[in-house]
Design a protein that fits this description.
Number of domains: 1
Strand order of the largest sheet: 1-2-3-4-7
Distance between the termini: 6 Å
Largest sheet: 5 strands, antiparallel
CATH class: Mainly Beta
Strand content: over 45%
Oligomer: single chain
CATH topology: Immunoglobulin-like
Number of strands: 9
CATH architecture: Sandwich
Structural class: mainly beta
Number of helices: 0
Shape: elongated
Length: 113
């Protein structure tokens, strides 16, 4: 899957997968994460044409960082998103850049992103 991410002024990123006709909206709260304090990572999976949420989804989220000079990987598996929306709480272990990778599957809509 090839997606393109774009941030808006509201802090919400929009990841587009034109091949599967899907948009993933990603945001987090608080807007400036605090080390070792829960940050809510929010995802909304929508039909690209209609903006309606896709139902009956399962998700996996992987967060990767090399901010401490050593690669660290955090995995969240088997996340249920019956209404196309889900969130996870993540404690950032330090400052730096963090890459958020997600895989979405749906049995009822025959989608795998």
């Amino acid at each position: 899957m090839l997606t393109y991410g774009r941030s808006s002024t509201s802090g919400t990123q929009s990841w587009l997968d034109r091949k599967n006709n899907v948009r993933i909206l990603f945001s987090y709260t608080p807007a400036t994460p605090i080390i070792d304090t829960p940050t809510d990572l929010k995802f909304s999976i929508q039909n690209l044409q209609t903006s309606k949420s896709l139902p009956d989804l399962m998700a996996r989220v992987v967060i990767v960082t090399n901010s401490s000079g050593q690669e660290r990987i955090f995995k969240f598996n088997n996340i249920s998103a019956p209404d196309g929306v889900f969130s996870i709480k993540f404690l950032f272990p330090g400052t730096g850049l963090f890459q958020v990778i997600t895989r979405i599957t749906s049995h009822s809509n025959d989608v795998a992103l």
